[in-house]
């Protein structure tokens, strides 16, 4: 088997919930030895959250912690802290996403970590960055979406701010941290030194909302945003409004009803009117006369009747399922896609073929579906395995650090560790 790119990299995964675990899971997929350090009393909270089978680790946990090992140890006990010191002295990377100040309170400040291991890369996720006036806050997904600009710009203009179903605050921040950690590993090859890599959830959401920051400046310069549904008939205030399903770039689009929409909440496609493809688009939707008509043949001419045009396209879509519509439109090079439900995605043969959705065997559960690597490599294919049981590797890790059987038994007796 090909050696995985990150093999030999030792990662201490002191993370919980989603943001941190998403980052370390990917390090594990790509070959790092990722050791999850968890509280003896139950471990990562997601083990118990939203369980679908009594007494079995929840999917929330198994889908974020595959390919890792687990050490369950009370790191607040003197013995636990000593174990952490030994692990840190020998590690390449430590990742954490506890509440602000928690690591310092445990005796694991950045200064201490550096003293123990100057080559260590210390990855940290917080809700807000150090310079924020909110840097003491505990933060979950939707808090970050609201603070980072996603909520104020998502939804419809006559409804409240709306959060996305995508984990823009959690997994997305984990991916940002991952980029930072890999960058720091490359820099360490050059300098021999580790460093602290911080990613805040607000910053990571904002980074994905950059087009809205673009729009804010355009709005302030000209007073309107021509690609938003509010233009030209509605009103603009002084901040970027919610634009419904409008395309975020220069190509207008909308979610359009297909056959069956009355009963199927996902019988829709996203349809883009691509400027350079107007002639073919007009033919595709049964209005070839619009192709050369000056009232329709430029984006500017179409702007004030864009919803009329979308209405005409919906008439054309009325007798076609979303799949049939896309099959026709792809021949006319219309950028479009069916609105996919989670059920359809879970059963999609091409996502299974590509390994983007994989079936994994999990101890105590049997097989379950999870996401595979969304990045594909020509030189290797990551193998997605199960997640560890709480403390599954406790004894093996302690023995590896030089503790003898009596000492390990003593740890168990004092309830400093759990597992086998
Ligand atoms: N042994 C002993 N104690 C441990 C331990 C271990 N192995 N692992 C954790 N703890 C302790 C922590 O030190 C902390 O103790 P103190 O509060 O006494 O310092 C305590 O457990 C709880 O830590 P926590 O960070 O998990 O606290 P929480 O559940 O109240 O908050 C969260 C959770 C997510 C809101 C908070 O961690 C946070 O804001 N993190 C940063 C932002 C973030 O990553 N959010 C993502 C959430 S979803 O992906």
From TrEMBL:
GO molecular function per UniProt: formyl-CoA transferase activity
Record: active site: 170
Keywords, comma-separated and alphabetical: Transferase
One Gene Ontology term from the biological process aspect of the record: oxalate catabolic process
One Pfam family of this chain: CoA_transf_3
Reactions catalysed according to its record: formyl-CoA + oxalate = oxalyl-CoA + formate
Binding site for substrate: 249-251
Binding site for CoA: 39, 97-99, 105, 138-141, 274-276
Enzyme's top EC category: transferase
Phosphoprotein as UniProt keyword: no
EC number: 2.8.3.16
Pathway: Metabolic intermediate degradation; oxalate degradation; CO(2) and formate from oxalate: step 1/2
Entry-linked Gene3D superfamilies: Crotonobetainyl-coa:carnitine coa-transferase, domain 1, formyl-coa transferase, domain 3
Keyword Protein transport set for record: no
Domain of life from the UniProt record: Bacteria
Family recorded in the similarity comment: Belongs to the CoA-transferase III family. Frc subfamily.
PANTHER family: SUCCINATE--HYDROXYMETHYLGLUTARATE COA-TRANSFERASE
Assembly and binders: Homodimer.
NCBIfam families cross-referenced by the UniProt entry: oxalate_frc, PRK05398.1
Biological role stated in the UniProt entry: Involved in the catabolism of oxalate and in the adapatation to low pH via the induction of the oxalate-dependent acid tolerance response (ATR). Catalyzes the transfer of the CoA moiety from formyl-CoA to oxalate.
Protein name, per record: Formyl-CoA:oxalate CoA-transferase
Organism: Mycolicibacterium smegmatis (strain ATCC 700084 / mc(2)155) (Mycobacterium smegmatis)
Lineage start: Bacteria, Bacillati, Actinomycetota, Actinomycetes, Mycobacteriales
